[in-house]
Amino acid sequence: MVASASIKMDELLTNWLGSDAVYESVVRVIENLKSESSNNTNANTNDGRDNALTTVDGRPPLSPKLLVIKQQQQQIKKRPEIPPFFRPKGVVENAQHGDNPQNPPPSPPKRRINSSFTEDQTWDGIYMANREGGGVSGGVGGGEGDEISKISAHEYDTIATDGAASAATAGQQSQQQPQQQQPCIAIRARELFQELGVFPSALDSVEGLPPNLPAILYQYERNESTYHKDTDDMRLVPMERFERITKELCNFPTFFHKPLYDRILQLWERHITSQQIKLPPLPMVTFGMFHYFWDTEMAPYDKDERFFRLIKQPTQEYITRDDFFPYIKELLSDHPGLEFLSDHAEFQDKYAVTVITRIFYSVNLCHSGRITVRQVRKSDLLSVFQQVDEEEDINKVTKYFSYEHFYVLYCRFWELDHDRDYKITREDLLKYGEHSLSHMIVDRIFDAAPRPFESFDENGNVVKPSRDYLTYEDFIFFMLSEEDKANEYSARYWFSCVDVDGDDKLNNMEMRSFYAVQLHRMQCMGHEVVPFEDMLCQMMDMIKPANSDYLVVEDFLQDHCSQVAGALFDALFNVNKYVMFEQRDPFLERQKREDEFDTDWDRFACIDYNRLAMEEEQREEEAMEVDWVTMDEEEEDADEYNALGLSGSSEAPF
Q: Residue by residue, what is the 3-state secondary structure of 522-579?
C-alpha cells in the first residue's frame, strides 16, 4: 500500500509541482519510501510464495512474476526521470551512453503548423538526413553537416507552434515510404543563378548597367568576404530576370520581384555598413548577396513572417499603408486584368488606395493603421496575394483586388461628392442609399466612427483627424460596414456608433433614442409602425445576448448571429433595410443563402456594378443620339446657308 501511495504521489508531483527545489526535496523523500517498501517486499518474498501473495487492503494480489519484474525495474531505475519541462536547456540524456551525453545539434527554427514547409528551408539543408549515404541531403559540402546527419528526416517538418514535434504526424510519416527529397536551397539557387545570371567578365552583354560596376566588382574579387569566396558567388542576376527566383525559391508572388530585389540590395548595404566591411554597395544582386538574404530573412521564419518582414520597413515592427504601395504598383503594371488602366494614372492611384484600405479593413481589426505579424497570421492575406498572381481575371479575386468592387466604391463616392473636393460632408452622406440613414446615425458616424488611418506627429503621437468630413478611405470603411453587417469589423464599427455613452454596453435607453427617429420616418413614409418593445423582443430572441439588460459587442460576434446581427442595426438607423427585413420573402432568403456569393458585400457589389454598367451604356446611347441629331441640324443649317449664297471656307480661323 505504501508503494502504491508513493507512486500516486510521484505522478501528482510530476504533474503539478513547478519549483525545482521543492521537486528535488520531495523526490528524495519518495526515494526513501520506495527503498523501505522494496526492502519489506524482498523480506516477504524470501519467506515464501504465500507471504508474497498476501495483501492488506483486500485487493487481489499481483502475480509473482510481475513482482520480480517490478523489483528489477526499481533496481535499474533508482531515480525517477525528471519531466522534460524541468530539464535545463541544452541537456540531452542519452539512454545508451548514460555518462557520456552528446552535445545536441542546433535547434531548427520554430514553424507555425499552418504556414510551415514540407522541406528543409535552411541554406545547406543541415536538418535533413541523407537516408542512403549518411551525409547531408542536398548539401553543398561536408564539415559540420556530417555531424548532424543523424537527425530524423522528418524532425524538421513536424515542428509545432511551441517547438515540440507532433507525435501523431511523426508516426504517420514513419509509416510512409520515404520519398525523394528536393535538393537544398543552395543547390537550387545556384542552378537558377547559373541559368539567369552572368559573370562579371560577361557584363558587356547586359544593357543599362551603371558605368562604375566593373570597378566595384573588382574590389569584391580582391577582398574575399563570408558570402563572396569564389567566382560563383560573384554571379549577378539583373532585376528583369529575378521573377523565377522570386516565385520558385522565395514562394512570393511574381510581381514581388522588383521590391524583393530592392530589399536585398538595401539589406546588403546595411550589412556591410554595420559590419564595417570596406566594400561599396552593389547595384545588382549576386549569388553571395542572395545567400546572405536567405540566411537572415528567410531560413529562420515561416511563410507568414517572411511575407510580413518583406512588406514592412526593416526598422519597424509593423506594416503601414505606405508599405503596400510598391507592391500594388507592380501589380498594376504586371497583371493582364489591369492593363487597361495603364493610360489612367489617376485611377491607378485610386485603385491602389482602395485595395490597401480594404486590406486594413479586414486585417487590422483594431483600426490602428498598423498591421502586426499576429494579424497577418490570422488573416488570408498571403494566400490572396498568391491567388491574384495566378488568376488572370482580376474580378474573380473578390478579396481586396476586384476591379468591379473598386468601381462600385469609387462611383458611389463620386455620386455623393458633388463639389469634387474628395470630401464627404454630413449633408452628402444623408443622401446615401436614397436617404436611408437617419440624421442621428450620420452625426454619430462623423463624431465616433473609427477612422482607418490615424496621422502621427514628429514625436509619434496620434493626431486626431478632422471630424468635419469623410475622406475616400473613411468612406470605404463606412460603405463596407453598411453593405455587409455580417463581419466582425462591421459589428464593431456600428456598435461604436450607437454606444453613445461609450461604456461598451448598448442599453435600452440608447436603442430607444435611435428607434424613435425610425418610428417618425416610418410614419411619414406610410409604413406599418412596429413598437419599440416588439422590435426589441424580436431582436433579443435572434441574438440571445448573455445579459438581457444590455448588449455588448461580443453578443453580435456569436456564430448564430453572423446573418442576423445586422438586423438590429438596420432597425435602429436604416429604415429602408429594416422595412425590407420585415417584409422579406422566405423563398428569396433561401435563394440568397444558396447563391454563389460568399458575403453580403460580394452580392451587393455585383448587383450595383451591373446597375452602374447599364446606366453607363444608357448614357452612351443617349450621347450618340444627341450627336446624330446635332449632325442632322448642322447639315440642314449648312444647306440653308449655301442656298443664300453665303458659303465660305469651312476651316477654323486658327
A: HHHHCCCCCCHHHHHHHHHHHHCCCCCCEECHHHHCCHHHCCCHHHHHHHHHEHHHHH
| Contact assessment for residue 57 and residue 2, using Cβ atoms and an 8 Å cutoff | no
C-alpha cell at 381: 492575406
Q: To which residue does cell 439588460 refer?
A: 549
C-alpha distance from residue 326 to each of 96, 349, 376 (Å): 57, 11, 18
CA dist., res. 170 & res. 647, Å (int): 95
- Residue 172 and residue 349: Cα distance in Å, rounded? 51
When mean pLDDT is compared across 157-166, 234-243, 267-276, 431-440, the lowest value belongs to: 157-166
CA distance 213 to 352: 35
Residue 454 cell numbers, joined: 490615424
At 389, list the grid cell. Answer: 498572381
Cell of 496: 461604436
Q: Which residues contact 70 (CB under 8 A, 6 or more apart)?
A: 62
Residues linked to residue 129 through DSSP beta bridges, in sequence order = 136
- Quick one: three-class SS letters along 150-192? CCCCCCCCCECCCCCECHHHHHHHHHCCCCCCCCCHHHHHHHH
β-bridge partners, 507: 550
Instruction: Give the torsion through C-alpha atoms of 251, 256, 258, 263, to 10 deg.
Output: -70
Average pLDDT score over residue span 363-368: 87
Per-residue pLDDT tens over the stretch 494-552: 999 999 998 999 999 999 999 999 999 999 988 888 999 999 999 999 999 999 899 99
Q: How far apart are CA 605 and CA 409, in angstroms?
A: 9
Write the pLDDT tens digit of every residue in 425-446. 999 999 999 999 999 999 999 9
More confident residue, 332 or 176: 332
Q: Rounded distance, CA 121 to CA 302, Å?
A: 9
Taking CA atoms, 365 is separated from 109, 481, 497, 555, in Å, by 29, 12, 16, 17
State pLDDT tens for residues 175-219.
444 456 678 899 999 999 999 988 876 666 666 677 777 788 888
Model confidence, pTM: 0.72
Q: Tell me if 260 sits within 8 A of 253, measured CB to CB.
A: no
